[in-house]
Amino acid sequence: PYHPDGKVERFRLAHVDRKPGPGMILRALADLDIDKENSFLIGDKQTDIAAAEAAGIPGFLFAGGNLAEFVDDCRKRRVGAALGLQAGGEFAP
User: Fold this and answer.
1) Tens-digit pLDDT profile for residues 26-62
2) Is residue 41 part of a domain?
3) Which of 7, 37, 42, 49 has a CB 3.0–4.6 Å from the CB of 59, allowing a cystine?
4) Other C-beta atoms within 10 Å of 59: how many?
5) Cα angle vertex 1, ends 29, 45, to 5°?
6) Is this model's pTM higher than 0.85 or not?
């Protein structure tokens, strides 16, 4: 609910929980015992991606379309990166 220009005085401030701050993501990682090393975030705004990066996890920008296919592609890219593969399935030098 925080916003530096908000109308409700008690929430009128910059806060780590407001994206691109990582607060909500970091709390979810801790509270839900999420494996950060095997996680990524999908967002529809650049502030989502910035928040993910600030939390130390990769972020992928979803521009629309088939979300299930996009998630599958993100998972493949994460596995490929972990294995040292470049785009197209070639190993990085």
Assistant:
1) 999 999 999 998 899 999 999 999 999 999 999 999 9
2) yes
3) 49
4) 21
5) 65
6) no
**Cα gap 26→58, rounded to integer Å:** 13
Does 93 reside within a domain? Answer: no
Q: What is the CATH number for 54? A: 3.40.50.1000
pLDDT for 14 beyond 90: no
Whether residue 30 is contained in a domain is answered as yes
Please give the residue range of the domain that contains residue 16.
Answer: 9-83
Domain count, the chain: 1
The 3-state secondary structure of the chain, one letter per residue = CCCCCCCCHHHCCCCCCCCCCCHHHHHHHHHCCCCHHHCCEEECCHHHHHHHHHCCCCEEECCCCCHHHHHHHHHHHHHHHHHCECCCCCECC
56-83 pLDDT, tens digit each: 999 999 999 999 999 999 999 888 777 7
Calpha distance 1→78 (Å, rounded): 32
